[in-house]
Write a structure and sequence with these properties.
Layout lengths: L2 H31 L8 H24 L1 H25 L2 H18 L2 H7 L6 H10 L1 H15 L8 H19 L19 H5 L2 H30 L4 H16 L2 H11 L1 H19 L5 H27 L7 H29 L2 H6 L2 H22 L1
Length: about 400
């Protein structure tokens, strides 16, 4: 694997460091400052709503100026939004915190394209491995994110102010790493060149539809349960150090399999790997329903992470089989919009459900989506068998 893929994997790790710290602390900071308890996870939701709103703008920037300019602009926004969050924590403004997390969504929308950019940095035979290797870079975030949140929580007199300032430093480091990557040049678009299928036409393509659904459900279920975990553990009276430990193992589950997932997809097929992801998510729910002690939180969130990896890596591989080169930006924007829209809904639902109905009801709420995903994979598998027969 070439050095540019490894550098992009490092950038992915720094992105996940940012995301994990946001998830670990935004709900807790929100709980301290929100006018109503059910509004505690609105800053978490703001981050993903901002990502959904930014997908179109990011696609246009990438189409016009290429990956490097777009990714660096996202990191500049990450720097500014981290400083805004720090200011919000300093003055105790819930609404400024919420606005800052919405703005930060532009960075997240760019970061969602790192995995697609990985495929462009590798030869065709290595694309699955490049995608999974870049996703595996999230292991940096698995270690750095929870520890950064834990060690900077009380670094300054205002709780979590130090964490937000540390994220500004993470953004600067990521900008330096990104500057070393050489992405393929954006080819000029000749007049009259084919624009490819519309969004509606893409969504009528069965392979693309299932890939988009898997990305949305994989991220949605993961976010529903992960965003609520710090709040659920806080209700149980567990210290923040335990929350950080659970999130660390969750993110290890999300990204450690990335060293092998690409090879497993080539060996067993993308559909089998995605089906295994659905089963692992169901196993997570089963464990979560048995109790609310520290070890059950660790096991459930670890299974959730591995299940997400199989579904999300598989959906990326499946998606790349379904669109033409001239449809790349549109197709990737559609997938990412679905991811962010689902995450926005689940970020709000996680806070509302866990604070009003409890951890068990929250987990039961994820089952319909997982059953839909299993049915979609079975439908596509039967359709492929019928076509090949």
């Amino acid at each position: 694997m070439n050095r540019h893929v490894h550098l992009l994997a490092t950038a992915q790790g720094l992105l996940l460091t940012n995301n994990i710290v946001f998830i670990a602390i935004n709900g807790l900071v929100g709980m301290q400052m929100a006018p109503r308890p059910w509004m505690a996870t609105l800053p978490v939701m703001g981050y993903v709503v901002g990502g959904a709103l930014a997908t179109g703008a990011v696609a246009r920037v990438q189409r016009r100026w290429g990956r490097q300019v777009s990714f660096q602009s996202g990191l500049a926004v990450a720097l500014g939004s981290a400083l805004l969050c720090a200011l919000a924590a300093w003055i105790g403004s819930f609404w400024l915190l919420l606005a800052a997390t919405v703005v930060a969504g532009y960075y997240s929308a760019n970061g969602q394209l790192y995995r697609f950019a990985a495929a462009e940095l590798a030869p065709p035979a290595e694309r699955e491995r490049a995608v999974s290797r870049v996703l595996a870079g999230g292991l940096i975030g698995a270690v750095a994110g929870p520890n950064l949140a834990s060690h900077t929580r009380d670094l300054l007199p205002v709780p979590f102010l130090g964490a937000y300032l540390a994220l500004a430093g993470v953004a600067l480091l990521s900008m330096a790493v990104m500057a070393l990557i050489r992405f393929p040049a954006v080819p000029p678009t000749p007049a009259g060149a084919p624009r490819g299928r519309s969004t509606a036409e893409l969504l009528r393509e069965p392979v693309f539809l299932v890939a988009a659904l898997a990305a949305a459900i994989g991220y949605g279920v993961m976010n529903l349960l992960m965003a609520a975990t710090p709040l659920a553990m806080d209700v149980c009276g567990m210290p923040f150090s335990d929350v950080a430990w659970v999130l660390e193992w969750h993110v290890i589950g999300m990204f450690a399999p990335g060293f092998w997932t690409g090879g497993w997809i080539r060996r067993f097929g993308v559909m089998r790997v995605m089906a295994a992801g659905v089963l692992l998510n169901l196993a997570c729910v089963a464990v979560a329903l048995t109790g609310q002690d520290l070890h059950r939180f660790v096991v459930a969130l670890f299974l959730l992470g591995v299940g997400w990896n199989f579904l999300f890596t598989g959906s990326t591989t499946l998606a790349m089989q379904s669109y033409r080169p001239e449809e790349k930006d549109r197709a990737q924007a559609v997938i990412n919009f679905g991811v962010f829209a689902t995450m926005a809904l689940t970020s709000f639902a996680s806070g509302a459900l866990v604070t009003t109905q409890g951890w068990s009801v929250l987990n039961l709420g994820s089952l319909p989506a997982l059953l839909v995903m299993g049915a979609a994979l079975a439908w596509l598998a039967r359709r492929r068998q019928a076509v090949s027969a």
